[in-house]
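We give the entry.
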Amino acid sequence: MRIRLVILGLILTAFSLTLAQPAAAQTQGNFGVGFSFLGNNDIALASSNLPLGFFGVGELELSDNMSIAFDVSGNYGVGRDVCGGVASRAIPTSQQPAECLVGVVPAVQGQDFQGFSNNRAEAQWCSPTLSECDLKAVSVAGMVGPRFSFGGGGARPFVHIMGGVVRSVRKIGFFSHTSTNFAFMPGFGVDVPINDGTDFRLQVDFRRVLFGADADSGSSLHTGGVDYNEIRVGFGFLWGVGG
């Protein structure tokens, strides 16, 4: 199923490029930057949203209402308390809240920390060697796909469907795990002209991260170990380029 979705995204992109070839001689585009908020992140128990974020976008027009769009974003959550974690000492399982133990897989004797910590609740990462026991979560994504715009010289609504990869990190102290996964991201928004060369953009995206329950212990990052959904809200400014 996951492979089919990725292939479908590639087909849609190639199809949109084929349709728009006659307009290539009048190609123009835009680029922009802005702030983004990522909700429903699932890479750690304590990171239900990543409120600090940015996005960078680019767009190459293929016809009056069709373009190929590029999107790079990063979202962060830092200083998250780890289920009531206590600084400077390990937290026994018996003293952890129930929500810290969801999906925990017992450690196998002989495995090193990196071999099993991705299957343990964040509170169990705490150690007497750490001065603080808090969580840092990061999600970075790169996407590309067709975008369709509507309207004339005023506000221009748009819809798109993009595909790409998401790089996720969760870290406590010097312990961390990372994972890179395919994702697809349909979304919609509106561009509102401010002056001749600048637009204001408001955008909402729904991202499906194809994590997969079959991920091995080296790549499995969140306790559920299955595909998950995210929602991203962003706003920023665009500048036109080209003729």
In short: DSSP finds two helices and nine strands in the chain. The two ends are 42 Å apart (CA to CA).
